[in-house]
Amino acid sequence: MKLLSIVVSAYNEEAGLNEFYSVTKGYGERLREKGWNYEFVFVNDGSQDMTGDILKGLSQDDPEHVKLISFSRNFGHEAAMIAGLDYASGDGIVFMDADLQHPPEHLEKIVDAFESGFNVISMVRTKNETAGIIKKITSGGFYWFINKVSDIYLEPNASDFFAITRVVQNVLKKNYREKVRFLRGYVQNVGFRKTTIEYEAAPRVAGSSHYSIKKLFTFAMNTIMCFSNVPLKLGIFAGLSSGFLGLILLIYTLCTHDKAPSGYATIVVLLCFMFGVLFIVVGIIGEYIAVLFEELKDRPLYIIEDMENIDINSEYGE
Ligand code: UDP
Ligand code: MG
After folding, report:
1. Ligand 1 neighbourhood includes 210 CB (under 6 angstroms)
2. Could you read off the pLDDT of 237-288 as tens digits, one per residue?
3. What's the structural domain count of the chain?
């Protein structure tokens, strides 16, 4: 039997977790016909509600199928996915949300794709009932921008629902441990044999989304910095264009020195404009330095407080 690891990160998901488990387990059992066993690798991302207790209960009731990693505090969805990646022992690994927005009935198709030799399976949303118009526009703009300024391609409708085989797991485990990162983007750009499967995002089974506009903005900024140095070059363009503007103004002033305008408004406007551009460029450099600093400090991506049903020897690095 081959093994499918189902990595699930959960942060304050007490309301829907039991339903997620029983529904997904049902689909997991069906994989047996195809010669695949399954395991859950739950990551409790520092939840403050009963999520931890529910998961502990599951890991005791169903030790054969439930592994549990508990973080010491909230480290975020990506860190939780990376922890799952580190400890999953399956031949194939699928990453899912704990709120049933990623329909588990697709597990069979995923396993079929593994069997046909695909290493990376991106699940692409065809319909997103939960996203409002503003989210759709900003997300569209973001993907347009990132695909323009970076040399990689990010699929606009890809989600944190994807599956990889062990070879890809090893690559991601060893070489993509940046502090500022975009796991889904890496998955799409490591190469290997890729395929996509379409799915309809269901509404959340319970609870509410954890992603605020502010979080999404930080996320977008980080992603751009992850994949592109183009913003750093903005300074050169700004310098060149203001230099050119200066030259034109100089010529203009020299030619019209008798009847030159009194100049107050011109000076104030130009000054504000130039300082605006200057500080934006300085700010961008600052953002990149912050990223460098994060890497340099090399703090852990996550801290584990407790683990259930996990062989300690399977730890990252082994
Ligand atoms: N999540 C997490 N840590 C966090 C925020 C979210 O592990 O700090 C989990 C959450 O429990 C869920 C998944 O990440 O399983 C996706 O989060 P959410 O459903 O809030 O995002 P959305 O689907 O609205 O984009
Ligand atoms: Mg969700």
Report:
1. yes
2. 888 888 888 888 888 888 877 666 677 777 888 888 888 888 888 988 898 8
3. 1
Residue 195 contacts by C-beta under 8 Å, 6 or more apart in sequence?
Answer: 113, 118, 120, 121, 122
Nearest ligand 1 atom, CA 8: 15
Q: What is the domain-level CATH number for residue 171?
A: 3.90.550.10
Nearest alpha carbon, ligand 1 atom 14: 77
Q: What is the pLDDT of residues 284-302, one digit of tens each?
A: 889 889 889 988 998 899 9
Measured in Å, residue 11 CA sits from the centre of ligand 1 at: 6
DSSP H or E segment with residue 39: strand 36-44
In a domain, 55, yes or no: yes
Question: Can you give the residue range of the structural domain that contains 191?
Answer: 2-135+149-208+300-308
Q: Distance, CA 205 to ligand 1 centroid (Å)?
A: 13
Q: Are 204 and 243 in contact (CB under 8 A)?
A: no
Q: Which residues contact 284 (CB under 8 A, 6 or more apart)?
A: 231, 232, 234, 235
Give whole-number Cα distances, 106 to 31, 122, 162, 199, 215, in Å: 11, 12, 11, 8, 29
